[in-house]
């Protein structure tokens, strides 16, 4: 047997095992996720300011229930792997720092509400997650942001925000987002695992156009169960899909990202209309840390987020908020 023949046989013998490792087993479970993000959990002085609240309800399909044309699209974009489709409804509320003014300060963040329907195609390999999301909705009074905040403030006896009459008016919103996250094992410490999750995101649309680079580090057990905790965009998000690889999986994490923002409808006046606006800052950073717990087909996550200034004249230092989610497999 010559060297060339021996080399060929050795390569052929390795390929099946490599293919087996790369091929994920089908997952027949659908996943429901309820998530809330709120600035009032960020400190002892409970107050609504800037990014006040984000609420999201999402559904993600089993890997066995993806239409053929979307499977073909995912394979064209990302190669072989397991695909899912997801649909979620999300609302976000933004207010100025000073909500006691009936006529909002023109140099403060505008009042704005956002209501979006998000349609996601997700592709998983053994060590990567790829996401393509189309978001369609609107910005303005029809989002229901003012009604939700005012009703909740009445319920808990908190002073209302007085300047909603000057909010950004009804405007269609759209965004197309593509993201890739890599899962890179680092090593083990006894029975505990560590890994890194570098991620790259690009989004275009009249809602927000930006590029984002981020990295998270995790420490726990069953890290291959997901790709990090979910977040409402923008920000580092591992997505809703998870499949526990042990009866009880958990981790703690810390991460950071940098965003280069080319346009933000929630801060800037639309090119097609006037309205309240401020001057955005093009470079925005975030730091986050928290935990995830997976057991009995459920995943509970929490992230504490600190965000740098988003517009010129923003006061108060880092904006901080919490993000919690509960996902259930059916």
UniProtKB/TrEMBL annotation:
- Keyword tags: Signal
Q: Which Pfam families match?
A: LpxR
Q: Where is the signal peptide?
A: 1-22
Does the keyword Phosphoprotein belong to this entry? no
Name of this protein:
DUF2219 domain-containing protein
């Amino acid at each position: 047997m010559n060297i060339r023949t021996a080399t060929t046989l050795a390569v052929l013998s390795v390929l099946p095992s490599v293919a087996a490792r790369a091929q994920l087993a089908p997952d027949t479970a659908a996943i429901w996720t309820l998530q809330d993000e709120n600035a009032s959990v960020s400190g002892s002085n409970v107050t609504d300011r800037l990014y006040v609240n984000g609420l999201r309800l999402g559904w993600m399909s089993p890997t066995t229930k993806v239409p053929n044309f979307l499977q073909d699209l995912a394979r064209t974009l990302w190669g072989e792997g397991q695909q899912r489709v997801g649909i979620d409804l999300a609302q976000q509320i933004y207010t100025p720092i000073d909500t006691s003014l009936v006529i909002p300060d023109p140099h403060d963040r505008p009042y704005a509400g956002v209501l979006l329907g998000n349609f996601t195609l997700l592709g998983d390999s053994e060590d990567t997650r790829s996401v393509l999301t189309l978001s369609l909705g609107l910005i303005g009074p029809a989002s229901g942001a003012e009604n939700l905040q005012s009703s909740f403030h009445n319920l808990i006896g908190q002073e209302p925000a007085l300047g909603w009459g000057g909010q950004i008016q009804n405007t269609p919103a759209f965004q197309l987002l593509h993201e890739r996250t890599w899962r890179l094992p680092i090593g083990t410490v006894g029975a505990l695992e560590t890994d890194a999750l570098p991620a790259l995101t690009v989004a275009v649309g009249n809602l927000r156009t930006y590029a984002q680079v981020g990295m998270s580090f995790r420490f726990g057990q069953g890290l291959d169960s997901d790709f990090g905790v979910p977040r409402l965009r923008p920000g580092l998000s591992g997505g809703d899909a998870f499949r526990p690889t042990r009866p009880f999986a958990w981790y703690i994490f810390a991460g950071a990202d940098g965003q280069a923002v080319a346009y933000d409808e929630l801060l800037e006046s639309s090119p097609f209309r006037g309205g309240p606006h401020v001057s955005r800052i093009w470079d925005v950073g975030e730091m986050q840390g928290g935990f995830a717990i997976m057991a009995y087909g459920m995943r509970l996550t929490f992230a504490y987020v600190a965000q740098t200034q988003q517009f010129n004249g923003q006061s108060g230092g880092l904006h901080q908020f919490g993000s919690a989610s509960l996902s259930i497999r059916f």
